[in-house]
Design goal:
With 610 residues, this protein is of the alpha+beta class. The chain folds into three domains: 452 residues, 3-Layer(bba) Sandwich (FAD/NAD(P)-binding domain), CATH 3.50.50; 74 residues, Orthogonal Bundle (Arc Repressor Mutant, subunit A); 67 residues, DNA polymerase, domain 1, CATH 1.10.150.570. It is built from 19 helices and 22 strands.
Amino acid sequence: MKDEWDVIVVGGGHAGIEAALAARRKGCSVVLISAKRNRIGEMSCNPAIGGIAKGTIVREIDALDGSMARTADATRLHFRMLNRSKGPAVWGPRVQSDAAEYASAQQSYIGNRGVEILEDEVTGLEGLTEKVKGVRCRGRGCVKGKAVVLATGTFLKGMLYRGDEKWKGGRIGDISADLLEKDIVKRMFHVERFKTGTPSRIVRKTVNTEELEVQTSEKTNFNFSYEKQMICEKEVVCYITYTNRKTMEIAKENLHLSPLMAGRIEGTGPRYCPSYEDKVVKFPERISHKIYVEPMGYRSRYFYLNGLSSSLPREAQEKMVRSLQGFGKAEIADYGYAVEYSYFHYTEIDDTLRLRRSENVFVAGQICGTSGYEEAAGLGLVAGANAGRVAKCLEPLSLSRMNSYIGVMIDDIVSKGADEPYRMFSSRAENRLHLRQDNADRRLYLTGDRFDIMSDEKKELLTGNMKEAERIKYILENETVDGVRLSKWCRRPEMSVGKIITVSDALVDSEEKILMSVLLDEKYSGYIERNLRKNESRRNLEKISLREINSYMEIDEICWEAREVLERERPETLARAERIPGIRPTDLQGLLIYLGRKRSTWNNSRAGEM
């Protein structure tokens, strides 16, 4: 091992992998520390990548040369484009992957790109918090590094629950990073607790699939990666079943044994991916809940029951599973459980994903308060890129919420946090008509080029895409039909790629996907321009600093509730204050009045001294 690394990445999940690769692409020496080498890249929960908004994040990761899209394509078993009933701006590509092959491919990918793997347990940071010297490991001792990325997922003081069972771990079969959490708390960082869970895995051959609703894979030429690599030719059928009254009654009878309902779990769980017992309590009028039955791999022996997450005792889980249509004789291979873990409060993190009280420690993934593979990978890429830039003494990368879903996610996390594990939705993005999965390469090309986080091969590919899009746009702006510019024709509801090439010979040989993407830019151009104007107003608020305010409690121009919230959150700008829940327009106006009067008093005082 080296005496000192440019970047140390702690954790080998989706965030850690992208962090390590991003720092490596910057030319940094990188070591990734994981408790178990063979579990790097493991899909701990659902073996799927993408979905509504999440699929767009995956394409953004690929546009910045990450690995998730390539690996999802290479291990794809089933594909669906979600949200087709709505406009293409919010379509969500989603693939079912072979879980074992996905992990294996990611392990090979990082190994082939010069990331060193150290199998060890990190027990704390090394040196002063303001600028750490590296990390401490149980086996190797001190590992020195110029920058550190913490991507510990659910391992930070992880605790697993199932009925009366309770044991330490970040996931089943793994350790809990108790000593690292203890060191973080000792350094006076504010951490809180979240929880998540997973369903049982069912032995595939014990399920009567003839009784289930079949969900076949869509035939498509869609790739997550812009590199147009070969898609995995293996394909599986997924299924759908439903809970029923008997399933609900079994859950109700055992609610007193639920660690969540009994209060043994303190952390808040994800609202949009609740356990089945949560659903029974919160939606008592709903008897039937859809359960997606998804193979864990092409030759895997197991089914994953997406929608039946539970931490009830084993016997209750068996009864619930066997109450489902087609599962009367089902055998459980692994029982569901809940996991509670620590994460950094959002006030500790800045918009580069650096811990505010440290020059060189970055965080990514669930340790930031998010949930989901895609969210973790997007944060990992940014954290790793910035750790690499700190190691090289370069300016940090910061993504705009107007130009990427990753930017929206980071801005949401660091400006207002979350009272439950954060999940990306298209509704969170005010500029979502521009933030589409089809144009992620063009949206992020300038960012990737400016911050030099793309390989030469990726840059060459995306440069070609940009030139093709510019050529198409030039034709649309300069050719006319019946005196009307083609760009305006594109805005008609009935206009499609097929129709537009019939009126312009110059577009006949255009690459179809890029032509479609540029056409959508034109269709939504009016909405996009309006959102950009609104954003300009918000940017003006960013220029108004609140750092000079010593105490909000003394500001009579704002309501008492706003004083308490602002005193606690201490936003740096008026724009950050605007995004804090509970802050009203009248409070913002009051702050402007206060600042104006204070600065006027200060200026008069200076004039008097002169």
